[in-house]
Write a structure and sequence with these properties.
Layout lengths: L1 H22 L8 E6 L9 E4 L11 H15 L3 E2 L2 H10 L10 H11 L3 E16 L3 E7 L2 E7 L3 E15 L5 E8 L8 H17 L9 H6 L15 E5 L2 E5 L10 H23 L3 H14 L4 H14 L2 H14 L4 H13 L3 H13 L3 H11 L6 H14 L3 H11 L6 H14 L3 H14 L4 H13 L3 H13 L3 H16 L1
Parallel strand pairs: 2-3, 2-4
Antiparallel strand pairs: 1-8, 4-7, 5-6, 7-8, 9-10
Length: 505
């Protein structure tokens, strides 16, 4: 019994060693990428058309598969990609051939017809699947003094081989903007379409990423899994997505179309999780990590505005102003009343020397209840939006007392459109106009003020003053009496003064 027990454990031990060395032989594999960058003027090349790639040998339709993946990846990277339907219609109307075998001259012609700034063309060098297997192996085992060979059945699997190259061409100049190519140095068990997506993302990331972005840490690399060539029944393939200089994992469902409401809820939930991570990084001011985690949220759910807001702030802090502006625009496109997006847009304008535009966005953020928006508005103006009327009215009164008539006109003009006490503002400005000799402008302001509030005394008094300067004493006296009847002491004093003056004449 003891011998049998020992034999069983020896078999289990050998089997365990086998599976440890054979079944778990997986290491991260990355594609080999070569690229050449001529221009990174993304604002110029936001509008692009992606033509079908040339098919790989013995792989018909592979070019269209790669075209579809490229459209998806560029669109997720905030490029305005021409729809396939529009592309096909234009080609049909012009009786052109839409295939990967077209020359670049014809491709540029199609781009001009579509009205885009650049075209993406390319070739699929390899797109194939090969059957692989391991032979049956035998492990020697000594039983009862005899050597017995235990057969270990071989396994079968498929290996994919993919290589891709692409070029981005400026439509106006016909010059190369960017070129890149990529391939895996050996076959992998992943489906060819998945490998093609990995390669494309890495090629495109080399163009759009920030070259100053920190590289992957060893821990991040270890967490990025791709299946090796050896078979592994227990392994789970995980997507690795390239985004400005960083790699991160996402679930398999990431780029599948939304099938139902439950799927959409899962997308949102996962995007929120990544955004919460970016919020933690915002609090610690780790701006590179904010960009990475926010980008993950955006790729999972491109309609989630909070992720764009967080990333725009990080881009501002890192000095990438164009990227920050694009993210603010996208956030406001998705949520026009997002106060944080307006605040970040204000910061962008402030840093690019556009204080008037910055003030407008800060005011919108403040009026939406964002305290930091109010503070930023006050930094520029000296007052909060809610304090605007009192601030400028006091400034106007100070200028009036100093007989600074230009100052009075300037300050009252800032608040003349306010709903509160508009008639007072107009009357004060009318007084300044009168002292400057602009009697018509003064009279217009007084009439407008009286129309707004016929029970306000100041517009009547100041209108009377204008009329008196114009030599219309009777009309002036009547308006002074209106002001006096509305309990304005100055109006009553002016009635006495003008009445006495008229009697002397």
């Amino acid at each position: 019994m003891m011998c049998r027990w020992i034999v069983k454990w020896r078999i289990l031990f050998i089997s365990l060693i086998y599976f440890l060395f054979i079944g778990c032989a997986t290491t991260p594999i990355y594609p080999t990428i070569t690229n050449h960058v001529v221009s990174r003027d993304f604002n110029k090349y936001r509008q692009i058309a992606i033509l079908p790639f040339a098919d790989a040998p013995s792989a018909p339709q592979s070019g269209q598969i790669i075209q579809g993946l490229a459209i998806q990846i560029f669109a997720q990277s905030r490029f305005n990609v021409m729809e396939r339907g529009r592309l096909s219609n234009v080609v049909s109307e012009q009786q052109l051939s839409l295939s990967g075998l077209m020359d670049e001259t014809q491709a540029i012609r199609i781009g001009k017809l579509l009205g885009v700034k650049a075209i993406v063309v390319g070739e699929v060098g390899q797109y194939s699947v090969s059957q692989r297997h391991t032979d049956t192996t035998y492990f020697p085992l000594i039983l009862y003094g005899k050597t017995t060979n235990i057969p270990i059945q071989g396994k079968q699997w498929e290996e994919s081989f993919v290589s891709i190259s692409l070029r981005i061409i400026d439509i106006e100049t016909s010059q190369l903007v960017y070129s890149g190519s990529g391939q895996y140095d050996r076959g992998l068990q992943n489906p060819p379409q998945q490998l093609a997506e990995f390669i494309l993302r890495d090629i495109i990331a080399r163009w759009i990423r920030d070259p100053d972005q920190p590289q992957l840490t060893k821990e991040a690399k270890d967490n990025t899994e791709r299946q090796d060539t050896e078979p592994n029944d227990s392994s789970v393939i995980k997507k690795t997505i390239a985004w400005p200089g960083r790699m991160f994992k996402a679930t398999k469902k990431l780029f599948q179309p939304t099938k139902n409401e439950e799927t959409q809820k899962e997308y949102i939930k996962e995007a929120v999780t990544w955004t919460e991570k970016s919020n933690e990084s915002v609090r610690s001011k780790n701006w590179s990590e904010v960009i990475r985690t926010s980008s993950a949220a955006i790729i999972i759910d491109p309609t989630y505005p909070v992720a764009y807001v967080n990333r725009s702030w990080a881009y501002l802090e890192k000095g990438f102003l164009n990227e920050a502006f694009a993210d603010c625009q996208k956030a406001l496109e998705l949520d026009g009343v997002n106060t944080a997006a307006h605040n970040n847009m204000g910061l962008f304008y402030l840093r690019t020397g556009q204080p008037d535009k910055a003030k407008s966005d800060f005011e919108t953020a403040c009026n939406g209840g964002l305290e930091v928006g109010c503070n930023n508005f006050k930094i520029i103006t000296g007052y909060r939006p809610s304090e605007k009327f009192e601030f400028f009215l006091n400034k106007a009164k100070e200028a009036f007392n100093k007989q600074d008539w230009d100052g009075v006109i300037k300050y009252t003009s800032e608040i003349v459109t306010s709903e509160s006490q508009k008639e007072i503002v107009l009357a004060v400005r009318a007084g300044a106009y009168a002292y400057k000799g602009l009697l018509k402008e003064a009279l217009d302001d007084c009439d407008e003020a009286i129309k707004i509030n016929p029970d306000s005394a100041l517009p009547y008094n100041n209108k009377a003053f204008v009329l008196e300067l114009m030599g219309k004493h009777k009309e002036a006296l009547l308006n002074y009496e209106f002001a006096c009847n509305l309990k304005m002491p100055l109006g009553c004093d002016n009635v006495k003064r003008l009445t006495s003056s008229m009697k002397k004449q």
